[in-house]
TrEMBL record, chains A, B:
This is Polyprenyl synthetase family protein. Pfam families: polyprenyl_synt. One of its GO terms (biological process) is isoprenoid biosynthetic process. One of its GO terms (molecular function) is metal ion binding. The keyword Magnesium applies. CDD domains: Trans_IPPS_HT.
Length: 327, 327
């Protein structure tokens, strides 16, 4: 398995991430060939490994034990992958990373257990490599927050009264929490103080928030071929993200009749929604929010230069690069 | 919520189990009302709470911290319930404990997340109350074994060459492991030695094996109204348990044409399978295996009398009662 091209500019990190991916693969050993194949394919389908990358980078502010850090990084990515597999069941998604989803190819039964196995694999890596019960406790708390975010999003499906605050709360759980946890665990398990590790956690959280908002903005900026999934699929599924919420604030009357079609929204309707969001300048408003989170993260990273200048610089460059994809 | 009638003869245990159930309910707090309702309903639908009961009983061989033991007992039952919810998705099951399954009532999307939430709830209780990383590690290992059992069973669906050993290996994972873990965690987290706790684990494992075999035998001994699920539903789903495997050994030619109909097996076919299993004396053969596991467990429990006579007696009586349901 080969890691994402993104990392070719970061040679040492790239080496660590390759080890992480190899360990993830090695940790999958199941008597059921279908499920094993499905999981290996999912792992190797080119995820960006951002959570492991942040865990590894933040560990460098302390005294990282390489073997442990690789295992914990693999645990984060396994957990992330588990949530993707189960999300795709719930969303009835057909494509993920430009390839057919696991549930679409192998059926829901395989996908349920494949996700469960990835959860367990994550749990095993964590239990066997974390040095303290505290890390396990933080992890459990984060898993709770992640699931609450997913469930919050699900309960707001097709609700046109969902607020910007609802949205921010849901993405805080479903996305930012795992970035926050990765940053925290990397630092804390490398003997950084609780105070310092919590600072890292906060940076991770801001990065996660900005990342998710940028990801949601992509739906309104690119075509299906460049992002690997059908355009406005989320809207058809009743998941309304920040650009759409801002457009709803400024031109509710134009959008409501389209959104109220719910599952029956056609491609032409989706196209209209897309146009209205553009006209209302809602993408720029959303970008502004992402930029605020990005700037918060970058400013906080700057303050880490005195601790470990080289790591702080890598962290800064990577974060800037990732979060300014379309800015 | 009220606990199962089974416990009215065990007043102190009954009190502890009621607390366990209350804590399980209290641990469920989700922003999504559908999922919360679904989980609470599943928890309160009258499971026997056997795993918590064994955890609590085995804790009495040491110095149990009541609050911790209640939490760990709740963790075991939450984990068990999580596996039931996801199994019902995979099995497309319509009934569980005589009531419609969660996935049948609320849909697969709710059921996927409800199961995930129960996993997380179990993980949280464990992380917050276990005193040692070792317990967490054992738990992770058991979760791996449980899932491997489920997956092993799934990979053997509709396979008429599945052996008795395959069957025993799969139920060892999917059922016996959690009984073993409950016994182990109860003792180990109450300051029993690792040696003693491993002895408890072995007893729990034998109880779990006997319990699952007896449960599978019930399919061939009772009607749908008494066990709360349709007769031979497992066989129609391609899951072949011990009585059928013994019947396949002695009268393969009569069974193969019926089993090879797979999903298309009719109620009349299932009735024929039922009759053949009866004629071949396969139920008695399976009962003999269950009895061996039961006797192993009871003999080992006897040796615990010198440690804690009263607890050993309760354990003996309960186990004898549970495992001789149809013997």
């Amino acid at each position: 398995m080969k890691i994402h091209d993104l990392w070719k500019h970061y040679p040492t990190l790239s080496k660590d991430l390759q080890k992480t991916l190899n360990l993830m693969e090695k940790s999958i050993s199941i008597s059921n060939q279908d499920v094993e194949d499905a999981i290996i394919e999912m792992i190797s389908s080119g995820g960006k490994l951002l959570r492991p990358a942040y865990l590894i980078l933040f560990s460098r502010f302390g005294k990282p034990d390489k073997k442990k850090i690789t295992a914990l990084a693999a645990a984060m990515e396994s957990l992330h992958t588990a949530t993707l597999v189960h999300d795709d069941i719930v969303d009835e998604a057909e494509l993920r990373r430009s390839t057919p989803t696991l549930q679409h190819r192998f059926g829901k039964d395989v996908a349920v257990y494949a996700g469960d196995y990835l959860f367990v694999s994550s749990f095993k890596l964590l239990a066997n490599y974390a040095s303290s019960l505290k890390s396990i406790q933080y992890n459990a708390k984060s898993m709770d927050a992640i699931l609450s975010g997913e469930l919050g999003q699900m309960s707001k499906r097709y609700k046109t009264d969902v607020t910007v605050d609802d949205y921010l709360e849901n993405i805080s759980g479903k996305t930012a929490e795992l970035f926050a946890l990765s940053a925290f665990v990397g630092a804390y398990e490398s003997d950084c103080s609780l105070l310092f590790s919590n600072k890292c956690k906060k940076i991770g959280h801001s990065i996660g928030m900005a990342f998710q908002i940028m990801d949601d903005i992509l739906d309104y900026s690119q075509t299906s071929t460049t992002i690997g999934k059908p355009v406005l699929e989320d809207v058809k599924q009743g998941v309304y993200s920040l650009p759409l919420l801002y457009a709803l604030q400024s031109n509710r009357s134009a959008l409501l009749p389209l959104l109220n079609k719910r599952e029956n929204m056609t491609d032409a309707d989706a196209e209209k929604v897309y146009q209205i969001v553009q006209q209302e300048g809602a993408v720029d408003k959303a970008k502004k929010v992402a930029k605020d989170y990005t700037n918060n993260a970058l400013a906080a990273i700057k303050t880490l230069e005195k601790v470990e200048p080289k790591t702080a610089k890598t962290l800064y460059d990577l974060t800037e690069y990732l979060l300014q994809r379309t800015q």
